[in-house]
Amino acid sequence: MREELIQVEGMTCGHCKSAVEGAAAGVKGVTNAEVNLDKGNVLVKMEDNADLAKVIEEIEDQGYDVKK
Amino acid sequence: MREELIQVEGMTCGHCKSAVEGAAAGVKGVTNAEVNLDKGNVLVKMEDNADLAKVIEEIEDQGYDVKK
Asked: Which InterPro entries does UniProt cross-reference here (chains A, B) (predicted)?
């Protein structure tokens, strides 16, 4: 298990929080995703072999920019 | 047919726009609802006998404040 803190731009409200958390949680191996709206990030807990790039891609597909 | 311009507080993003438009459009007699995020309002087109109070109630149920 590992944790990744991903900076996400453009999240403004509870809907955005749900969209980003749902996007991350849908990736294989992700066990939890929690957005902090004030800080503009999402803390993702995942299996060691989960695909971080895929997580980022799914978040971007929701219309948000990920700081890399 | 009539149009009502409703001031809505707290809409921040495209998800909010969809939520408010969907809430208004779900009321009987409403034929169109279009949110302007910059101006913080929603223009609702409805039959003469549509229930404006119900439209406002549905928007508030989505978690937004309507200025009356």
From this structure: Cu-bd, HMA_dom, HMA_dom_sf
Residue B68 has pLDDT above 90, yes or no: no
Interface predicted TM-score (ipTM) of this complex, two decimals: 0.71
Sheet with strand A65-66: strands edge to edge: A30-36, A41-46, A2-9, A65-66
pLDDT band, very low/low/confident/very high, at A68 (cuts 50, 70, 90): confident
List the CATH number of the domain containing B44: 3.30.70.100
When pLDDT is cut at 50, 70 and 90, the band that residue A35 belongs to is very high
Longest CA pairwise span in chain B (Å): 31
Residue in B closest to A11 by C-alpha = B13
| Positive/negative CA dihedral, A23, A25, A21, B17 | positive
Chain A positions with Cβ closer than 8 Å to B? 10, 12-16, 19, 63
Q: How many domains does chain A have?
A: 1
